[in-house]
Design brief:
The protein is of the alpha/beta class. It contains 17 helices and twelve strands. The strands form two sheets. It has an eight-stranded mixed beta sheet, with helices on both faces. A four-stranded parallel beta sheet has the order 2-1-3-4, covered by helices on one side.
Length: about 375
């Protein structure tokens, strides 16, 4: 592991102080403004960077993270203000050191190593983009996607989540998220893509909670027709370096715009109803994804509005599409209506419902932090 320490004066720390951690230590004397490129050129695994509470230093920290995206950048600041700590957290810097000595650094490296080992074992890696595509209109993909993002944000692990409403032309994820009306939308990010960094992200997104942000769909048709799919795909790519998980509601249309977005999606969740049209459309979408060489291992088929007494079974869906069904979401029309009318999530309204059980189990799988005992989904699958 290569550790680079940037400080205005070399700290009283010997180069072999961390030998037991198998760490190579490089010291760079200077400031964020004068020596940023020196640090990035060494491509460190971990960078400890002395900084001030100044907003300009926060911008430089963001720039360093963009230059070396796989590096763990850790600000070093004596007596940081509470406001600065909050800004650091919102910009994706969970670790802050208030002093530099071998014991403190060893403790930090141990935390970083454990976090990386955990991430490597997860099915869903940090910085992943989860897309949701309704195989036909009215399948409830937006309701499931917003509920799942909410469930993940409610977990104690505190993952940073971004939800992008790309269900065009009339996305309505804001209704399900009960998000506050803001000045910016997908078109605003689209137009600012060249200068978009973590700081600008933080200034433009709508905040659903302390670590759950939202980019709504454009409010008018004029902004929709001006969207360039390549620029929106770049938005998703940039978000991956800032957020732990990005949720993208794609809607129900397969077209050149959505096909471009799918290239940036790491796990594509198809949402289908267990009826004749649901089966037919799911099979067509899966064949299309195969035709454009999208990895089938990244495609998940999920049934929504499930009725155990329906004519089409889970086995029928698997045989017709060639895909094993991953999650079965029960029918919850009344819960959707209550959620929209009350401005609260379905998980809050009915936390013990079968729907909440499935969604929470799905969030648990994404988070990688299991609860004690078998989940509802595990019990439903008889495992």
């Amino acid at each position: 592991m290569l550790l680079v320490i940037l400080a205005s004066a070399k700290p009283s720390l010997s180069a072999n102080a961390l030998a037991t951690q198998s760490v190579d230590v490089n010291f760079v004397e200077g400031t964020l403004y004068s020596a940023l490129e020196q640090v990035s050129a060494r491509k460190p695994d971990v960078a400890l960077v002395e900084c001030s509470d100044d907003a300009g230093d926060l911008d430089q920290l963001n720039k360093l993270q963009e230059l070396v995206p796989h590096c763990v950048v850790v600000p070093v600041r004596t007596n940081p203000s509470p406001d600065f700590l909050l800004q650091l957290m919102r910009n994706g810097f969970p670790d802050v050191l208030t002093e530099l000595n071998a014991a403190v650094i060893e403790e930090l490296l141990e935390r970083v190593t454990k976090r990386q080992e955990k991430d490597a074992s997860l099915k869903y890696q940090r910085g992943q983009c989860l897309g949701f595509l309704s195989v036909k209109g009215g399948s409830g993909a937006t309701f499931i996607a917003t509920s799942l993002a909410t469930a993940l944000s409610n977990r104690a692990s505190g993952q940073r989540i971004l939800f992008i409403d790309a269900s065009l032309p009339f996305g309505d994820a804001d209704v399900y998220l009960n998000a506050p009306k803001g000045e910016h939308h997908l078109g605003s990010f689209h137009d600012s893509i060249e200068r978009l960094d973590a700081a600008l992200f933080g200034a433009m997104v709508q905040s659903v909670s302390s670590h759950f942000d939202f980019v709504p769909a454009p409010p008018n048709f004029r902004d929709v027709v001006n969207l360039d799919p390549d620029r929106v795909a770049t938005l998703i790519a940039k978000a991956k370096s800032i957020y732990d998980f990005i949720f993208v509601d794609i809607g129900s249309d397969i077209n050149p715009f959505t096909a471009t977005l799918i290239d940036q999606i790491d796990q594509l969740n198809l949402i289908a109803t267990a009826d004749i049209l649901g089966v037919q459309h799911a099979a067509q979408v899966i064949r299309f994804l195969d035709d454009i060489s999208y990895p089938q291992s990244n495609v998940s088929l999920n049934i929504t509005r499930w009725d155990a007494g329906g004519l089409i079974t889970q086995v029928d869906m698997t045989e017709a599409t060639g895909k094993e069904v991953q999650y079965i979401v029960p029918k919850v029309d009344n819960l959707i209506t209550k959620s929209m009318s009350q401005g609260r999530s379905a998980l809050e309204i009915s936390p013990r419902s079968p729907f909440s059980g499935v969604i929470n189990s799905w969030a648990e799988e994404i988070d990688g932090v299991p609860k004690k005992g078998k989940s509802l989904w595990t019990r439903l699958r008889g495992k």
